[in-house]
Amino acid sequence: MGTALAWADKGEVLWWVVVLTLLSSLFIQVGTNLVNDVVDFKKGADDEKRVGPQRVTQSGLIAPKTVFIMAAVCFLVAVLCGVPLVFRGGMPIFIVGLVSVLMGYGYTAGPFPLAYRGLGDVFVILFFGLIAVGGVYFLHTLELSMNAIIAGFQVGFLATVLIAINNLRDIDGDKKVHKRTLPVRFGKRFARIEIAGLALGPFVLGFYWYSLDFFWPFVLPWLVFPLAVLIVKMIFATEPGPAYNLYLAKSALLQLMFCFLLAAGFFL
Q: Domain count of the chain?
């Protein structure tokens, strides 16, 4: 999204930036998931009653120490991929990279795990949306704009739909281990309303592109609006349980297709 927006604003794409940001973000994501896999198991959030996809630590496929080592290697690769990006973007990119790695670890681990304090949703909007899109846009243009912020919120909201559905699915298990996610703190109704707002909000934000006479970025994402409505309807109609794994898959498809269509709109 950051690359497509930079193309729309400046007419230029730095492909080495695209490759290195993709690799760096990918390895931070994998490292974060591996840390999460181990920590949730050790804290009891993942046990034999887990209804989500299989976890390698909880299932005994890989030893916790090995998973932690794998996470450390992923974070190291992410840092190495980020070195040329720091030379391009300077101190702002250095700070973004450093904080991203630290927060990848601190999402579930450390003295103040974000996911166990109900801050995971904010974390995802910030890092998967605003920083991800804005950072890539900055690396291309060496500046920031309101366009990057709006696109960042659109991407971040849809990314957060996944964690919100995940947390609602796991509400009962999280209560037992004192994992204070938003559904645990405020209840199922709040969580469902949050999911609806996150899933439908990016379409509302699309009117910003309409106000700028960006026709295609406004129009194309509406092709997947029915899928967003379907996900919201299913969440309100179904009690948390294994069926939510299917809704997670549909939410991932929604984000992928929405972002593809919005990016295509920017290139057009």
A: 1
